[in-house]
Amino acid sequence: MTEQLSSSVAGSAVVYLVLVTLIGIWAAKRTSSARDFFIAGQNIGWVVAAFATMSAAFSGFVFMGGPGLMYRLGVASLFICVPVGFTSGLLCWVVGKRLRLLAGLQEIYTIPDVILCRYQSRCASGLASVAIVIGTVGYLGAQLQALGILVETVFETRALFGQWSFLAAMILGSIVVVFYATAGGMLAGVYTDLFQGSLMVIAAVVVFFYCLHAGGGLETMSRSIAESAVFGPSHLDPFGTLSIKSAMGFFFVFSVGVLGQPHMLHKFFMLKDPRTLKWMPLTIGLTQSACILIWLGIGLAVPALVSQGLMLPLSNPDFAAPQFLLKFTPGFLTGLVFAGVLAAIMSTADSFLNIGSAAIVRDLPKAFGGQIRNELLWGRVVVVGLASVSVIFAFLYRDLIALVGTFAFGTFAAALAPAVAVGLNWRRVTGTAASASIATGIVVNLGLEFLSKQSFIEWLPDTPLTEGALPAAVALGASFCVLLAISMLSPKGLKGGMDSDVDFVMDL
Amino acid sequence: MFKDLRKRTGESPRLFVNSDVVRRRALIYLAMASTAIVLSSRFSGFFVDLSMVILVMGFPTALICLAVTKNGKLGPLKVPLAVLTVVLESCGIAMFLLRGRVALEPFFGGFPVAAAFQLYGLWLGPLLLVGLAYGLTFEHWELRDSDLRRFEDRRCGSGEDAEK
Description:
The complex is a heterodimer of chains A (about 500) and B (about 160). Chain A has about 500 residues and is mostly helical. Helices cover about 75% and strands about 0% of the residues of chain A.
């Protein structure tokens, strides 16, 4: 990187970090209760909620992992992100209204709170908390990995820190996020998300046009890739590089699975007025689609440029985005884009720190029948601990960013989606069915992921799945099966034991 | 199967009492589809793959139907949800049938036809359809004024109870 480019990137990063820190300080002054810390005082409008949902959902995975995955797998990788065409509507129709109304009637800050209220089952709520803690560590790990790769590429830290540069970069990034997540909680989270989300949309749209310019337009890029010896036509075939099982598995997990993502569901609790849901699906869908342009743009442009001989083939697919930005965008824009990527990573990390902290400080003690007195103080302490564990996890569990992201997303999807989505719309679902479904989601997903990746315990069997079957999709399917089967076969309905507020909300 | 269940348990499970045809069909679809998705992880073949495509594409709409049905009706959402189902299913089947033929296909919108189905059919088409359908039917179906009044009454009642 040239000195001029380096200083423009560093300058943008400094401006970005100062603004985020100022928002954190502003929010810290307004955070005086657990309600402020965990659900932003239930006082945000639909634009802020929509941007916060989008920026929490879209992370370094979309900006860094996505283009890398598309370089490796072609358009088949888009099965992960094309569901955004309808997932915002799916979210609002299936759970959004009911979550918001329930949070207006009871003290509900988290998804385990909803599960406890809906099923009156501490077991189901406790299992949901465990799933959230496991998924949070995975998700945070993925964010910090993305941050490590970004910093290594831009600042060439390997020359300074040698083999420890990746760990050093991750630690540096987590210190910044921990600062504003600890000080301002979710109030800081949603307003930094609004800022970060706007930055992400602008950066993604501008980069997309640079991709079109660099590659010569959509059709030229497509034809270059199809005619290339390195990639070939299968790169542009939706079922070309992935088996149908894998492709549909991704589509299933990333469409239906959004119903179990606590960082997205959480935003519904924060809405000031239920009527503001009206235009949320369109706003979330449009902003998510704008962000995905960076995945599509760089994911098409880099293979096209390699095919045209304008770039060398990449040694690591995860370097697709950084390499393109450094070579094909002007200096001043590179700074903006790197700030956008930083924003994507930090907004998601912040949301997970808050949700993980709530699970540990609030939900797990409740599951055991207790309660921590000063939730605000302990919430802040746990944010620091959780970030430290995640750094260790990310350093030890080295894999492609996209795969780690999928692993965590799949854990949430398989564990929580059926219990929340079906449970809030069908009275017959019991606490036993919900507990069994959540446990199935966690065990099947973690078990299959572990068996498919481990090689150090020789006596363990290989994964029982046929080639191409996605552990997260199987776990999500199994979790739905268990929930529906137990509910259908249970002789008694839950009417007598159901909370009257839940019953009321399910009637609307 | 359900009649047997009713006889066996000696009760009227709420699956039948308070549910309607749309809801019942959605639940049966979800149960069958999720079972098939799990089973497909152990088998391979043309029909297994085709079934997987069809069942996965229908899953989101089945969940939406389960959530939005009121007294057995989908109201103003009937047409948008039918269109969404047709779009998702037809794009899924089209991509399935066109697999491996990219080199022979014409281009549409800058992409080979199969990829165009994926991008324009699965992503951009539903984006406007779903967003507008939700917004335009919100006050007539999703959260009506009468629902809001009932909610506010209950909320005020809860607040007063809490104060007492």
